């Protein structure tokens, strides 16, 4: 998933607000978990999220989600956050986080991620 950082998403320092980065990471985790199980998914928790470098206005943010663990109804998704300067092509890691996503049924109750073997 790729996002452009626009001025309204930044602080007075010209860097991306952490809340905006966290929202984008949650969206990437949601997409990865939904693709994995092809069911409705909700976020149960965001575990640890670390921001290592600032992301500046005008840069492109790449979010790289990966399902790293699957339980009965839950999936642990790790999301890497990278920034790219479009003029120079310089890329750098900027953060990472872990999210617990849960598959839910039509009544919004946890349901099995994978169908049971018949």
TrEMBL record:
Matches recorded under InterPro entries: Cytosol_ACT (IPR040170), HOTDOG_ACOT (IPR033120), HotDog_dom_sf (IPR029069), Thioestr_dom (IPR006683)
Pfam families given in the database record: 4HBT
Residue ranges constituting the HotDog ACOT-type domain according to the UniProt record: 1-107
Keywords, ordered alphabetically: Hydrolase
Transmembrane feature ranges: none
GO BP annotations listed: acyl-CoA metabolic process; fatty acid catabolic process
Family matches, as CDD domains: BFIT_BACH
GO cellular component terms, semicolon-separated: cytosol
Entry coiled-coil feature ranges: none
Molecular function per GO: long-chain fatty acyl-CoA hydrolase activity
Family: Belongs to the acyl coenzyme A hydrolase family.
PANTHER family noted in UniProt: ACYL COENZYME A THIOESTER HYDROLASE, CYTOSOLIC ACYL COENZYME A THIOESTER HYDROLASE
Protein's recorded name: Acyl-CoA thioesterase
